[in-house]
Hints:
The structure is a single chain. The protein has helices spanning 13-26, 38-45, 79-84, 101-117, 156-163, 185-192, 208-222, 234-244, 272-276, 287-298, 317-335, 353-361; strands at residues 5-9, 56-65, 68-78, 89-97, 122-125, 127-128, 134-135, 137-140, 167-178, 198-202, 253-258, 261-270, 302-310, 342-349, 365-376. By secondary structure, the protein is an alpha+beta fold. The protein folds into 2 domains: 2-173, Gcn5-related N-acetyltransferase (GNAT) (Aminopeptidase), CATH 3.40.630; 177-369, Gcn5-related N-acetyltransferase (GNAT) (Aminopeptidase), CATH 3.40.630. The strands form 2 sheets. Strands 1, 2, 3, 4, 5, 8, 9, 10, 11, 12, 13, 14 and 15 form a 13-stranded mixed β-sheet that branches. The protein has a two-stranded antiparallel sheet with strand order 6-7. The chain is globular and about 70 Å long. The protein starts with a strand and ends with a strand.
Amino acid sequence: MVASLRIEQVTDKAGLQEFIRLPSILYADAPHWITPLEVERLGILDPKQSPYFEHAEAGYWIARKNGEAVGRISAQIDQLALKTLSNKTGQFGMIVAIDDPAVTKLLLETAEDWLRDQGMDTIQGPFNLSINQEVGLLVDGFDTPPMMLMSHDPVYMGRHIEAAGFSKAKDLLAYIRGTDFLFPEKWRRMAERRSSHVSMRMFDMKKYDQEIKNIVSIFNEAWHTNWNFVPMTEKEAAHMAKELRPLIRKELAWFADVDGEPAAFIVCLPDVNGAIHGLNGRLFPFGWLKLLWRLKVTRPATARVLLMGVRRKFTEGLLGQILPFRLIYALESDLYKSPIKRVEMSWILENNAPVRRMIETLGGEAYKTYRVYEKSL
């Protein structure tokens, strides 16, 4: 069985296309699998399109069994990540495989060998491809489909990765809550309390580029001490702005300004996964019409809080406690009137006790767990 396995590195456009389409073939019968849009995957994986590759490099491989593609993996080194880590850590990602531990082992060994040759001493993953994109392998919560930009993996994959010598580095949690949940009285009064210093406002679509810059500035400042943090570059921010523009709705993105300065933000996006389900990853020839109809007319019933942050100088004291609640309260005043019935807040580090307590106070339930694995090289 092992002798029939071989690995091939992706070296051309046709190989990259096969790499992108492979999950939809291997996981076609999985009940909750949703095939990502090919154009979106290409925007992540193609060095000519993604600004990630201005500070990173990656390799892609496909495993074949008796000539048939049975798995894939990426390995990548992010120079910005290396600046924040105490050791030389490379990453693996995009891992997909049939239920055969030998296939997963071969894929991981290939990624390990490549990273070792590049001078790395530790491997972590999965990261698809950056910590600012999709992170972690689903290890709990397989009975519902994934929200946008969150992974969905078969039950066996975690066992196969652990059998290849990997152990847990960190767990990430996804919370779910209904939009009909009523704020506890204490926090409702606090959120409604007026202040001459704090003003709440929706995302200003007329100043779109500047608002994105505000978000990235607060994000980079708020999260820079977090585990494995990698700052978002200006070009990555511009790329993100272009990708998200069709999805951002002003009533689902809010700022808290303190004395006129953007101090905190929250961004909630309609769950595109519900809209692309059944398109098999392709927008042409008619998939884009279905997508527009589902987003604009039928409208998704689920959404995901993708980003949230408070500028560091405002995190201390009572103000630091109030701002997140005020953002969520402002957001939910519009969610309550929308077709959206459930909101995912993700991802949250397992040891981020303050944020977990806040979400649980507001009725959130941890319903999915994503795991990042690591191994010494």
